[in-house]
Amino acid sequence: MRERLIQLVEQELLPNVKLQAPVLNNPIVVQEVPDGWECIGRGNYAAVFVHRQFKGWVVKVYAHHYESVEKEVSVYHRLGVHPAYSKLIASGPTYLILQRLNGVTLYEAVHKGIPIPESVIKDINKALEYAKKRGLNPIDVHGKNIIMNEGRGYVVDVSDFYKKGRDRKWKDLVKAYYRVYLPFIYKYRLRVPYWLLDVARHSYRFYRRFKK
């Protein structure tokens, strides 16, 4: 099965998918997807696809910054096997094949009013501590790359874990979880519209730049 999926990636997906990155530091644009494939996620560097015959695995295809593929592969090798992280199945010069982690992102959960239990936060805290012990630097961890499923938390993007520097996104999110989310949004089962979430996200970015 693994070899068949690699064949489909290299003979069907890569030659026919069209990705563009028109705006720096914004999600790439997926212009065309071949038959049998579905795009299930987009980031600033890559898009994630699933084939209808292999729904347990996903393919992450980079649109640029191809040198980052090898670095992300090295991150997965360092992580090894851990319940909060995906598993690397295979890789090529511009793609990775990973175990699919099912669930809803924290971002979507807040929007839809789906309760986020404290167990999810604790799972991610433990997962990030584990990554540090493996010699990694877990940065750029935020509500769009954390998913939850049946009360468990998972990290779906580790592509920046090899980088140096400090990052407060997760620490600030945890602080907001206890100070704002639990006493208000969780308690009253509120649904937060996308526009308000985007205002909060952009305001946070401005605040962090100002603090620097």
TrEMBL record:
Keyword match Kinase: yes
SUPFAM superfamilies xref list: Protein kinase-like (PK-like)
Domain of life where this protein originates: Bacteria
PANTHER family named among the record's database cross-references: SERINE/THREONINE-PROTEIN KINASE YRZF-RELATED, SERINE_THREONINE-PROTEIN KINASE YRZF-RELATED
Protein name as annotated: Serine/threonine protein kinase
Keywords: Kinase, Serine/threonine-protein kinase, Transferase
InterPro entries for the chain: Kinase-like_dom_sf (IPR011009), Meiotic_Drive_Suppr_Kinase (IPR052396)
GO molecular function terms attached to this record: protein serine/threonine kinase activity
